[in-house]
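Deliverable D5.2: sample structural annotation.
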Amino acid sequence: MTTIQEVPQGRLKSPFYPRQAELDRLNRWHEWKGYSSADGFYDTTLEYFSIRNSTSVFDLTPMTKYRITGPDSLDFIDRLVTRDMRKIKPGRVAYAVWCNDEGQVIDDGTIFHLKEGEYRLCSQERHMAWLTAAAIGMDVSIVDETHDIAALAVQGPTSYSVMKNLGLDGIENLKPFGLTNFDFEGTDLMVSRTGFTGDLGYELWLPAAKAEALWDALFEAGKLHGIMAIGTEALEQSRIEAGFIAAYVDFLPADVTVRSGRSRSPFELGLEWLVDFKKSNFNGRRALAKEKRQGSTWRLVKLDIEGNKPAHHSYIFAKSGGRQKNIGFTTSATWSPVCKQNIAIGTVRTPHGNVGDKLFVEIYYQREMHWSRVMAEATVVDKPFWNPPRRRATPPGPF
C-alpha cells in the first residue's frame, strides 16, 4: 500500500519572507517551484564574502522535502537511487542521484535518515509523480512536507560560533553529513552539517510556525560574527567554486528533455562514485552497467581558465590536427574572488577532458556596447576550486 500526500500549489511566500522583506534593498526575486526566492538583498559581492569570511543565511524553504516512511521505506529508497542506502545509518545524510531506466539522471539531492524506517528526501525539483510510480507494490508513505518545514542554510567560517551562541550544546561534535536534534522554543529543530557552498556550514530545519522566531534568534546570535542574509546569486558563485552541479544548469533532468542526447548519466556528471553495482537492483542499473563497459559519450570537467572574463555559455575547443575542434561547452562559470581564478564547469565529448588537458574556451564579453572575443586557454583540474580544511574539521575551530 502506498500513501501519497502532496503540497499545496500556487505562488507561495516563505515563512521567512517577512524578515527578508525588511532587509531587501534590490527588489530582485525569482520563482523557485512556486515560491518567491531572492536573487540578493544588498549586493552580490558583499553577500558572497559573507559565505567565505563570516556567516551567510540562505532560505532553503522552497527546496522539495519528501518524508518517506513505512515497512518498505529502505527497500524503496535503495532501489530508487544508485548508491547503497543500507550503509547510511540513522543520524546520517547521503548525497545521491536517481535515474530513469536508461540510466539518465532525473535529479540529485540529499537523503536524511531521520530514524529507523524514516527518511527525508530533498531536491531542487518536484518528483511526486516519479516517486509514486517507483513505489508501486511497496508499503510506503510519501508526504510532501515542503510547505510545512522551514529551512535555512547557515554557512561560513563563523557559522559554528553562531550555532554555539544559539545555545546548541554539543553542536561541536556534529560531523560532516551528520544530523542531530535540539529543542527550540518547545519544538524540534533538526540541524544537519550539510550545505551547497563547499565551506563549513549547517542546515536548520523546523516547523514553519517557528520560522520567524528562529530567524530572530539566529541573527541575534550572529550579530558579532558578520551574519548576513544572501540570495541565489552569491550562493551560485560559491557552489561553482565547490564544484557542485545544479539541475537545469549543469544537466537537464531526464524526465523533461525533449531531444535525445541532452540528458546525462552519473558517469557523465563525474558521479561514478555514487554508482554501486554491488547492489542487487536499482533504477537504471542495466543501462549503467552497459555504459561502464562501453564508455561514456560525455565527461564533466572543471576548468581553470586564463584571464578574468567569465566563460558564460562558451564553447570549448581542443587542438586536433593543427585545428581547433569544438568538443563541448561550459555550463557554469564565474570569477572566483577568493581563489583569484577564472573558473568554470563544462561538459566535453570523450576522450577529451582528462585531468591536465589544455583546452581553449571561446569567451564573448561586452564593455561599453562593444563586443570582444577571446580564445582563452583552460586547464582541466580534478579538485574543487575551494575546499578549506575547516569544512571537515570536527570540532570546528571558533572564528
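Annotation notes: The mean pLDDT is 95. Helices lie at 17-23, 44-53, 73-80, 128-134, 159-165, 211-221, 232-241, 285-294.
The annotation will be released with the project's public dataset once the embargo ends.
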